Structures are given as structure tokens and as C-alpha cells.
Hints:
The chain is of the alpha/beta class and about 625 residues long.
Amino acid sequence: MTLHHTTSSPAELAPQGTHTVLSSRLVMTGILAAGLALLTVVLALTAVDYWSSRASMLQDSRVEAAIVADNISAAVMFRDNTATNEMLGALRSSSMVISATVYDEDGVLFAHYARDPDPGFPTSLQAVGLDGAAERSDWRMLEIARPIEVSAKGWGTLYIRKSMDALYTRLALRFGSALLIAACVMALAVAMVLRSRAAVREAEDRLHTLAHTDAVTGTGNRHAFNERLAAELERARSTRQRVALVYIDLDNFKTLNDTFGHAAGDGLLRQVARRLQSVVRSTDSISRLGGDEFALILRLDMDEAGLEKYAQRIVNVFQAAYTEVGQQVNVTCSAGIATFPDDASDMDALVSNADTAMYRAKEMGKNRCVRFDASMNLAVVRRHAIEQALRGELEHGTGLALHYQPLFAAGDQSLVGAEALLRWTHAELGSVSPLEAVTVAEDCGLIAPLGYWVLRTACRDAAQWKAGKPLRVAVNISARQLGDSQFLERVMDILREEGLPAHQLEIELTETVLMENMEAGAHTLHRLSQLGIHLAIDDFGTGYSSLSYLRQLPMRRLKIDRSFVKDLPGQEHSRTIVTAIVALAHGLGLQVTAEGVETQEQADYLVLQGCDVLQGYVFARPMPAPQFLALQARASA
């Protein structure tokens, strides 16, 4: 399989042929419409000019006939044929006059002038055929008859025939001139339109590129990804081929972004894009979907083994350190692969399945690529079902409950309190593990309501533990709760409403929660301590290595994580760690609780090392509230 760098522009991801052809047709249609409009105007002006010139010619001919008739009246009256012919011959200066004839009072030919020999001219007035009309015209000729009078007595008739050719010649010249001017104007307009269209097309291309290009990395954006994926799936359907979609999410990118700033984060994203471009083929495409998510669309012309090698090559490209803002940083990726039509029959399902596979890669420890499997959808369906069921439980359900695991003093093994542990049994889902419920709650934003439900329920139950000495109830708090601006007020309200003294509540927080909320949570924790609430660090030793928070925060207790307790007393490293934790805690004035104590040997060793409180199956398992009340009563007796 040959891999090489691709430089395909994101603008090429969306076909523009149809858009370009349609745009060109619209431009040509506009130009033709403008040309037809100009031609119509020229024809209309020519028609108006024709009728105007014809009317003017007719009027001039009438005047001309009247003048000639008046001039030859004396010659006709005296029957001077020669003079009449001479006067008619003067009409030769008018190019439009074909002939002029004088008929005497009896309608007999008296004098005649013709520009060209015309043997067919009428020799009598009756042959003219005007039938008393003064004028007659058609498309070729204009005929005018004018009586010749002297002292109101008629002596004959003047008959003139004129050709319309001169009129048509003049109109043709005007029409040709107008048409030439219109053509020049049209050519200029076309040139301007084409130039403007070229500028518009260039602007459209730029906008298209911007609309399909990620501003940070220069790869395709989500819009380009959707168009390219739809096109590739359509091509795959028509050619019966396969398409693979690779969803990529950078691991721990948010931490780097928060540490070095958004500018450094953008620089890292650009480096990631360049590395991905170095391993994809020319037929494949890269898109940044937003944040730290990328997607690769692959034309799948390889078998499963080849696809697995391709995916591993993508993961391996992240192994080398990145250099940004003068620092070397390591960023890995989690990737998921789904294929069409094997894993999905449409675009939405393909995207969803690739996303599901990517999240499975994160769940499996990150820095890997996972191929989608149909069984993953079962987990997605279950997660959705858990989310919906949990929402219902928090509103009006009865499936949620708390069990309490007793805490015993290491010295005399007396009961000193209990840790509240979530339990959930659903009618359809059955028993849902606390880890699964909490994970879903964190993902869908229900962790804060769930945490407050646990806190209120624990305080309500602990308020009933009145037999014997007061017992503390320990409740775990999430990072989302500690970051809530109303957290302090909510805790105070719950203690007041449930009637539990503040010193009987112990709030447990992990090192991770403390460090993520160090600045915002410090004030809240100090106020809680001032109220008398006990603060404990849960799972100590498994989180951040920095211990500066131990001297900055008002903690009262460390809880040794069960992972260090389970190998006691046989494992030397575990003994060393436990000894160090106990010494550190006591040196800082903190008490120590060891959780996960399952054997008497472990309990004896922890007592010997100076642990203050022990918790585990060797003493008691988690139990419902009524059973814990019975245990308390027996302990008091």
C-alpha cells in the first residue's frame, strides 16, 4: 500500500459543476434577453421612423403637387404644351418622382414627364383609376392627383407618381446605424457582464473555499466533511465499493490547551493536520470537525488486514513529541473506524458507529484505534437506557438507595461511622453498578443532581443514628458538585433541613477533584471546615503526585486506597507505601483510614502501622440503612 502526501483543496470536496453550469446559463439567458430587448427597441424605433417619414413624405408631396399645379395653370389654360412639359421636367430634381402627367379638362393626356421610359403610364385620367380620390399609396408607390384651376375654374388635373425606394433606403441606413450602435452597446455590456461575472465567480470560489476550510488547520471543516462523505457514499453505492470513516480525538488535549494557551493549542492542531496529511493517500480526505476532533474518509480498496495497518500508521504518527511554544509535548490519539456498507447503510449510521468506536478506544486506555463492532451499539443502547432511567429515578423513582459500609476504630474496633455507597436496582435494567451509574451521570450532566440526592439521603439516615456516641457519615463529592457556585449553600441547607450536626458529616474528595478545583474550591473547603464538617482525601496515592494541597487545604483525614492494602503484609512495596502514607499523614496532623481491608492479617498490620480507622469486608460489608441501625444498636449495647 503506497501512502503519500495529499494537497487536495477542501474546495474540491464539493462538486461545483452543476452550480457553474447553472450560473453560466443564467448569465447567457440574461445577455440574450438584453440583446432581444435592444433589438425590439431598434425595430420599434424603425417602425415609428417609417410611419413618421411616410406621413412627412405625404405632406411634402401634397405641398409639392399644389405648387406645381399652380405654376402650370396658366400654361394649361392657354394650351401651351411645350411650357407645361418644361415645367414638369423641373421635377427631375426630385429623385422620388417617377412621373408627372397633366390631363386636360376632358381627362385626355396633355403633357407628360417620366424619369425613365414608362410605356405603361395611363394615357387618360380615367385610366389612373383614382375615382375622384386625391391620393393613393401602397408599399411601393405614392400617387397624388391635384386639380389645375384658374379663377376657380378647372382646366385639368395634375397626376404625380412617386417611388418609396428613397424612403426605404433612408430607413435602412437608420436601421443599420441603430443596429450597429445597439451591437456596440451590447458588446460593451457583454464585456462588462463577463468581467463582473468573472469577479463574482472568483469571489464565490473564495467564499466556497472559506466555507469548506477549517481556519486553524487549513483542512476541510465539518461542512466539507458532510459533503465529501455524502459524495463518497453515493459513489460507493453506484460502483458497489466500500468507504471507511476514521474518527480521531486527541487525548488530553484540553490539559495542554489550558496549560500553554489557545495559541499553542492551535499550533499543535496544525502540526497534527500536517502529520495526518503525510500518511493519507491522494484519494482520502482530512477534515477537522471542531475542537480536537478529526475525521478521515478513505476509499476502501484494501482488506481488513490492510485497514488495520493503515489505522496503526495513523496512531503511530502521534507517537513522536510535538514542539510548541518552545516546549516538547506528547499528544496521542484515540480513533474509531466504521465502514460502509459493512457497518452502516447510510451516512448518519456510519458517523455514529465511527464515533462509538472512538469512544470505545478511549475507554480501553486511549492511544489506540478500535474497529467498530455491532456489540458496541448494545453498550450505547444500554447507556441511553441508563441515562433515561436515571433521569426518571431522580425525579420520582424509588430504585436508588444507599448502603452503608461501617468504619471501625483501629484501636478497639469500635464503630465510629459509615461510608455512604450508592446502590441502584431498576425494574428493567436490573442491578446497575455504582461505577456505571456514576459514569453515565458524569457524561450526561446528572452527576450534580445525583450527588445532592446522595448527600441529602445520607444526612437524613445519619440523623437517625442517635443511639450511643455520634457517628460520622462519609459522602463522596464529585468535581462538578465542588465547582457548583451554590455548593456551600446547598450543603448548609441539607444539614439544616435534615437535622444533622455538621461535625457528623465527612465529605470525601479524590486528589483529582481537589487539583481540578484548587482555586475555586479552596474557599469553599475552608468554609465547610469552619462549619465543623470533616474533610477527607479519598483514594490517596492514586492521583496527582503534588502534595502541596495538603498544607493549603483544611483536610482532616487521608484514606489509603485499597490497591495498596490488598497486597499487605506480604508485598514489600505496599508495606513501604503504607508506612510512608501513615507517617506523612500523622506528621501533618491528619488521621488515616485504610479501606479495602479483607483479611485479619491486613488489619493487624495496619493497626501496627498506626492507622486510625479501618474499613473492609473483614469487619462488615455495605448494608441497607435499617441493617446499619441494628448494627449500631448492637454496638451501643
